[in-house]
Amino acid sequence: MLKEQPVRDLLNETNRVLQHAVGRGITHDIPISQKRFFENDVFVFSGFKTYNQLKEASLLLIDENGAVKSFDRFKQDILQLENTYNGRYLDAEYNFAVSSAQMASKWLEMEADGDRYNLQYRTANDDRVRPGHATLHEITLPQSNPFWDRFYPPNDWNCRCTAVQVLKDKYPMSNSHEAQQRGDAATTKIGKNNTNSSAIFRFNPGKDKIIFPPTHPYRSPRCATCSKRHNLAAPMSIERCEACFEILRIAERTEARREVLDFAKREIIGQFTFEHNDFTANFTKDSFKKNLRYNDFFEAKADILKNIKSYMPEKNAEYQWERNHSPEKKPKIRGYYAFQTAYKGNVQGLSGQPVRFKFREWQSGDIDFYHIHFL
Questions:
Q1: I want to staple 151 with a disulfide (CB 3.0 to 4.6 A). Which of 10, 85, 174, 183 is the partner?
Q2: pTM confidence score
Q3: Residues near 140 by Cβ (< 8 Å), separated by ≥ 6?
């Protein structure tokens, strides 16, 4: 179901909102590679959120007696589900993403100092602080202490706690074992099925390079221990891992689109034109985006676009002129130029495959790069 466009639209909108939260939260300069880890984690989380929402929606079709619900009842249940996932849940997830990104970027900055300073846990120190978190206030330990692997903030939804560097001679060192016990107590909330719903927050976003809990119920139970932690592609033996595989494919293609568009902006658009005996063609951001819009031959097209200059033929190459066959639909287009060559990349099964490049001529006489088509 994740392949359907309306589902992809929901996934992308959820991702857009949560990526905005991460952008707000990053208050320290961090390497681009670290940002990519965070962005990938948020995208995968958004994919799992979408998957769980739709899975739950499908279960609402049947009532408690096993019969199909009336449309009105099903509609009301769907509206309630939508308000839960895209209202209450999303608000908490947005706030968590802001806080998690802030603390992750802070950790990465403090990490360079190692144990030169101690870290001190601090709450907002007001009447809204959770009692469990209050017991962690002013716990002071070296950054290398295992306490911070599990209890570095945020430690719950809407948690406002933080950690700060302090001089070693200013605050006494806490007892590490006692601190661990307090951390365990602060992140213990026994709920349904006698499970601890707060245990998911026992992670360090900066050290683990993720924004959301790796054991969040949206995800597969295998995610936390998956050997491909940042790829999250577990064996296909359980349904959520299968969904993860598809989410990951979408994430990889999103990253590939970004790389191609960054390359185009940096080296092609406004800097490179293709000159032929009959015309001069420009390259636009829109043409790059359109060629990556669909999944057919996606990897090969991305490869071609990143090496577009090497595919442009010599000036005496033979071209085919094609008039505009739909002037009523595209009155501003005069026609197209096309030339054929072979794919020179290494995408499996496509090496040497014929590929056609089309250029579009406008009524104004301007010509721009338009389309890549595998034959």
A1: 183
A2: 0.72
A3: 118, 119, 120, 121, 166, 171, 172, 173, 174
